[in-house]
Amino acid sequence: MDEVLINALIYGVALVLTTYLLLRRVKLLRGKKVRVPKPQEAPKYTYSQVIALIKVVSIVLKSPATALSLFVILIILLISALSSGAVLASKTMTIEPTGKYLIIIELSENLPQLITHELNFKELRKMIRVVLEEPLNLRVGSETLVIYSVLGLDTDYGPLNVSRECYVGAKEFSSRLLKIRDKLVPIKYLGNFIYELRIVDGVTLLKPSFFLGSKPIFVPLENTLVTSFELANELLNASVPITYVIEFMSSEELNATVPLLLKYKEYISEFIIVHNDTLITYFGTPIPSTEGVVTSIISAAIASLIILPSTHAQISKIKEVEERLVIIGFPIWSLSLIALFAVISPLIMMGIVFFLITPLVFEPPSVFTSLISFVITALTVTAFSKIEVSKIYAQPEITPATHELTLVLSEGPHEVLSKVDTLLRRDEFFDVIKIDKYCRDDEGYLYGVLRFKKAWGLGANVEVMVSRVN
């Protein structure tokens, strides 16, 4: 019995060992299943390319030539701003002879010391001529009078007896009383004659709301009030511009007075000169003088002559790092653009900073003349840099010869082309744009268009022809 158990145990172990060896042999014959990892895409170089651009710009910024260029530009811009003279824009027209020499000036602030002490005049009149943005609501009994245009005169004017009464263009208020502070003023109807009244030919007594071409457009009569200067001043709380009509004895006195008044141009909103039969209107917005514009152009020309030689040195400095740019994925054709960008970017940054600060320090005419200098200098430097970059980076490109390879394989055309197709699609350096494949019996053809992942504008065309050879 013991012998039987021992024999059974021996046979069982032998059977298990034999089965294990047979299974292992079968697996070896069938081969292993190997997991092929999915090919990874080539790394993208967007971040490194941005860093490279920043480093290229920093190379230019650290260059002594760049420091010299920026210093020259700063000096030229300051010279243009400081030397700019401002004048008021003007328009001249011929009118009917008046035999008078007048200045009609509207001041945004009341400057009585200017009018009474500094000027030598024959007669002075003052008035309030305003068009309001917000309505002036006046109570007449239980009703409300809405006013948008106010004319205040310091004396009677033609049919307007403002010393005793006020005028409104709404008939329903005629012969009633208007209460202004503690005064009751009779109201009379204001007819269309107000539109015909003139200070002089070409200057209406009533302030126009706006002009349609050369035609003045007025506020409707029902929203117009004509009263005395004192009452208008009380109604508007002395917060509106005052118009002064100043008459002189001669043209010499008038001409001598104009420079005195123009010293206060920041307070002037209207300035008119009547020289007998000539009317000159000056507008309140100052513009750069001709001398200032000429100075800015000359300054820009001088700056360009000083800066241009340093531009060549900056571009040559960038030439030293072009191999690094190509290695990280920049194509050859982009190097000229990078060099141009690196040279121009400090100039642009300088201009942006300067023109953000300048309006806080200088008046608009000075900013304008500085802008002229900057634009001329920037355009000149850009054009010269483009020419220099083209000279340095211009080089002939040789189209590489077509590479051909002939192989003798044991597989048929279909198997060969299928493997080539698979390899191209799994390649880590190229993206497949398109693949055309054709197989028939003993021959086949494959055409592929590929794009290089690590650089712009580079690629490859692949042609594979397969035929059976006896």
Question: How would you describe this structure to a colleague?
Answer:
- Helix 2 (46-62) crosses helix 9, helix 3 runs antiparallel to helix 7 (290-319) and helix 7 runs parallel beside helix 10.
- The chain is α+β, with helices and mostly antiparallel strands and 470 residues long.
- The chain is elongated.
- Strand 10 and strand 11 (215-217) form a beta hairpin.
- The chain has 11 helices and 18 strands.
- The chain folds into 3 domains: 46-83 and 290-393, no CATH class; 87-288, no CATH class; 413-467.
- Strands 1-15-14-2-13-3-4-12-5-7-6 form an 11-stranded mixed β-sheet. Strands 16-17-18 form a 3-stranded antiparallel β-sheet, with helices on one face.
Q: Count every helix, treating DSSP H or I runs of 4 or more residues as helices.
A: 11
Mean pLDDT: 77
Give me the secondary-structure category. Answer: alpha+beta
Morphology call: elongated
- As for the number of domains, it is 3
Residues in helix, %? 40-55%
Rg from alpha-carbon coordinates: 45 Å
Question: Alpha-carbon distance between the termini?
Answer: 72 Å
* Percent of residues in beta strands: 25-35%
Placed side by side, the strands forming the largest sheet appear as 1-15-14-2-13-3-4-12-5-7-6
- Poorly predicted tracts of residues: 28-45
Tell me about the largest β-sheet. Answer: 11 strands, mixed
Number of strands: 18
